[in-house]
Structures are given as C-alpha cells and as structure tokens.
Amino acid sequence: MTIELNFTINEKKITLKTEPNRRLLDILRQELNLTGTKEGCAIGECGACTVVMNGKAVNSCLVLAPQINGAEILTVEGLEKDQRLHFLQENFLKHGAVQCGFCTPGMLMSAYALLSKNPNPTEAEVKEAIAGNLCRCTGYKQIIDAILETEGDIK
Amino acid sequence: MKNFTYFQPENLKDAAKQLGNNWKDRLLIAGGTDLLGLMKHNLERPDVLINLKSIAGLEKIEYLPGKELRIGALTKITDIAEHPVIREKFTALAEAAGQVASPQLRNMGTIGGNICQRPRCWYYRGDFNCLRKGGDICFAVEGRNKFHCIIGGAPCFIVHPSDLAVALQALEAKLIIFSGKKSKSVAIKDFFVLPDADVYRENILKPNEIITEIHIPEPASGCQSGYLKFQEREVWDFATVSVGVSIKKNANFIETGLVVFGGVAPRPWIEQKISQALTGTILKENTISELTDICLQDAEPLEENKYKVVLAKNLLKNLLMRLNNI
Ligand SMILES: Cc1cc2nc3c(=O)[nH]c(=O)nc-3n(C[C@H](O)[C@H](O)[C@H](O)COP(=O)(O)OP(=O)(O)OC[C@H]3O[C@@H](n4cnc5c(N)ncnc54)[C@H](O)[C@@H]3O)c2cc1C
Ligand code: SF4
Ligand code: FES
Ligand code: FES
Prior knowledge:
The complex is a heterodimer. In chain A, 30% of the residues lie in helices and 16% in strands. Chain A is of the alpha+beta class. Chain A has a five-stranded mixed beta sheet with strand order 2-1-5-3-4, with helices on one face. The N and C termini of chain A lie far apart (39 Å). In chain A, 45% of the residues are buried. By secondary structure, chain B is α+β, with helices and mostly antiparallel strands. Chain B has helices spanning 12-18, 35-40, 77-82, 84-89, 91-98, 103-108, 111-116, 122-125, 163-170, 272-278, 285-293, 307-323; strands spanning 5-7, 26-29, 48-51, 61-64, 68-72, 174-179, 182-187, 209-217, 223-230, 241-250, 253-262, 269-270. In chain B, the strands form three sheets. Chain B has a five-stranded antiparallel beta sheet, with no helix packed on it. In chain B, strands 9-10-11-12 form a four-stranded antiparallel beta sheet, with helices on both faces. In chain B, helix 5 runs antiparallel to helix 9. Chains A and B meet through strand 4 of A and helix 2 and helix 6 of B. Flavin-adenine dinucleotide sits between chains B (27-35, 37, 52, 73, 77, 100-101, 105, 108-110, 112-114, 116-117, 161-164, 205, 210-211, 236, 238) and A (43-45).
C-alpha cells in the first residue's frame, strides 16, 4: 500500500508517496535528506529525534508517516535563516552547550517549542521542556543557560 | 517495521467493522507512542492499522457545570494537564497528566491510548516468551522484580503503567465504549482486570471495541483531589509508586475519601480499608500516620520490591498532608 502525503516542512510545501510503515524520522532523513534530526533510541526515550509539529515538540521516531498528513513541521534545518544561525543556536555555541552535538538538534527544537509559547520561561519551565531530551556530555547546565538567555520573540 | 494497510475510517461504525475478533491482525492507533514501541519490538505485528484520528469529534474537553466533565478519547495528555477547569476541579487528573512521560510524549499521546497502553515489565517488552505472551512461566517470580507488583499479582506480576488511570479511578470516572453498534458506559473500577481473571489483557475491552469518551462526575462541594508520583529518574519515568486521592471535607473532618495506588498492582489499586477509615476522621499529622499504617496490609511483595509498601504509605501521608495544608 502506498499513500500520498501533503505537508509543510520548514515552510516548504511537500507532496510525496510512501509506505505507511515509515516514520516521520525516516521521511526526514531518507526522503528529504534533512539529516539534522538524529535517531537515538527509536522508542521515545532520548529526544534526539525531536521536531516541532503543529507548534509542539514531538518525537519523530514515534510518528507514523500517515500521521503527518496536513501537518506543519519545523526541523533544526528550519531555524537558520539566510545562512545565519538563529540566536537560539548562537546562544548554544556561546554557552558551550554543544559538545558531541548529537542531542543538540533535538534540544534546540524542544527549546524552540517552549520559547514560541512562553518567551520568558523560568529555569523550572526550561528544565521541564527539555525533560525528554537526553544529553550525555554537558550536564545540562550550559543548555539551560543558553535557553534562558534566548528571551523575547524568537520568530 | 513490517508493512501494513492503513485504514482511515470516517466514523466509529466503519472503524469497528474494520476491527476483527482477535488481538493480532487489526489494531487501533491513536497517538502511536506505545504502539510504535510495541511494533518495533515485534510484540505487535498488525496487518491493518485503523487510525482513530480520522474520526471527527473524538478530541474534545467539554465541561457541563454541575454535571460532569467529558473528555474525548483522542484528547492529548498535554491539553488535559493544561486545562484550567481540570486543574481547578479535577486536580488529581491534571496533576497526573502533567507527570506523564516527557513533553514530546504528552503532545502526541492521548488519554484513550494511555489507559490502554500495554505493560512495561522488562521480560514482556524483552525477548522472553512469558505467560502474558502465551508462554508457560512468569520470569519475574524468580528474576528481577524490583518494579513488579506487590498485590493482586499471580500468575503474572505486572504493574499497570498508566498515571491517568489512577487519577481517573480516584475521581470515579466512567468510560464510554463503542462496541460495533451501540455505546455502553463502564465504571472504571470494572474496566481493569487482574491476571487471575485474564493473563493476556489488562482490561475488559474486546478486540472490536473502542473507547470514545471518559466522563468524570462533578465533584461535590468540599471535594479535593490530588496525585503524587514517585519515580526513580529525575526527568521522565513511569511511576515506581503513585497515589491518587479524593476527599470530601465537611468543616474539619472527612466525610468520604477514596485512595488509589499506582505502581503496586496490575490495575489501579483501590484501598478499601483506608477509604473507609477516612470517613469521620479529622486529619492531623498523627491521625494521618495511624491511617496510612493500615494500608496495603495484604501485600505480598516479591524478593526485590518490599520497599514499595513503605513508599506507598509515605506517598499517601504526604498527599493527605498536602490536601489538608498540614
Ligand atoms: C518513553 C516513554 C515514557 C512513558 N512514560 C509514561 C508515564 O510516565 N506515565 C504514563 O502513564 N505513561 C507513560 N508512557 C506511556 C504513554 O503515556 C502512552 O504511550 C500514551 O499515553 C499512549 O497514548 P497513544 O495515544 O500514543 O496510544 P497508542 O500508542 O496509539 O495506543 C496504545 C494502545 O491503546 C490502544 N488504543 C488507543 N486508543 C484507543 C481507544 N480509544 N480505544 C481502544 N483502544 C485504544 C491501541 O490499539 C494500542 O494498543 C510512556 C511512554 C514512553 C514511550
Ligand atoms: S510479570 Fe507478567 S508480563 Fe512480566 S514476565 Fe511475568 S508474566 Fe510476563
Ligand atoms: S530516537 Fe526518538 S526519542 Fe530517541
Ligand atoms: S552534547 Fe553530546 S549528547 Fe549532548
């Protein structure tokens, strides 16, 4: 069975045909060559695959292709504008929040989802927003500081 | 993941028709957060998935003041956690919802899927052909059983993993179930089953039945509820032990109370004795300690989980103190 999907990725409209047993993560990495989004555990435990779907952070490893029909999706590739890093990304660099970098795209997307709803989060709110994102390198403090510094209208 | 046909029913009748009469070939998908994990580990290998999201009207929160709260089965856990009326009047449910998994999972996961999620026993999720999967033995009896049940087990010792189910039991919710032609209403206490009644399934649902709504009666005036969860990892985790309580106060003393534990049994566990003992008491620190001492007296912990009895008592104590501002 093939199905046709229509959706928006990083403000670009996409139509493609695929099998229903593929995940959003596979569509991103294999069909659209958007390899910024990472696969860690594949069962919802690490957050490396986080993207923003219809304004909310989700694990793309647990979203089936047919579930994205009609959706608006933002991946880490969509943060950069005109070849300039988003200031959330700049703050990650400034605070040393990127070490091996594997968790970074997912962290950025969880942070982006938080900040677009709540431009001035408290530290507790930041911690809660990234509770589903595992980082083995930084000890989280640098990440939290980077997100806290990125205030205001992030769009 | 094995390939499958994806069916998008327009209404409940179509969906029920597509469902078969066994639990193997045809399954419902809501948010998919549990189902995809099960499929990845080959615990489920459906030929057909039936998408509940294509049916209109299953995602809603409706409050009928003085009567009840109605939550559509496809409502996202995030929306329940953040809903102002649920936070104010059905507090135990909002508190439980806010502590389910991670933000990403709460954004996809639905209340219906949360209630119907499968057990997290590591033998069940792993490569062991245990009783629940049709094998001959329960590996948890002689194996690692730190997170298994302390009451209501045998022959299988799972705990029910749902946070929402515990809160819904404390609030005495009803589930509206569509079975082919008509809908029925089932009290949540009659929904979950223990392994000695059915070792393969955690509830009474039949393969062609669909939960459509969850109804919670309006709490009487003077009612308060809450949910407290202990988890091993600081960030997301399933409950090691949790407790949901609702009490109705009259001036200083408790008129009625209901205490439900999670993480201790294969279903949300109603503590009858303590619920009865609450009636007529005035809650102070010492009376609370006496009360919590009588709970889980019939527990039969396994080798590695005796700690759960103490943990459950302490959680209950903390929650009762909080609800009484002590
Ligand atoms: C890493 C991780 C951590 C988690 N932590 C927690 C936690 O702390 N607390 C907690 O409570 N849960 C936890 N969960 C479970 C999670 O909350 C559930 O996976 C989620 O709520 C299921 O909802 P869903 O809509 O995604 O269900 P799905 O995966 O779509 O469905 C789950 C099951 O229910 C059936 N089903 C779904 N909807 C209906 C319906 N309306 N009628 C009949 N059957 C139906 C499906 O056929 C399927 O068998 C965790 C899950 C993961 C992956
Ligand atoms: S507790 Fe139940 S699910 Fe776990 S190994 Fe035993 S029979 Fe299987
Ligand atoms: S890869 Fe999706 S949560 Fe780990
Ligand atoms: S920087 Fe390495 S996992 Fe986070």
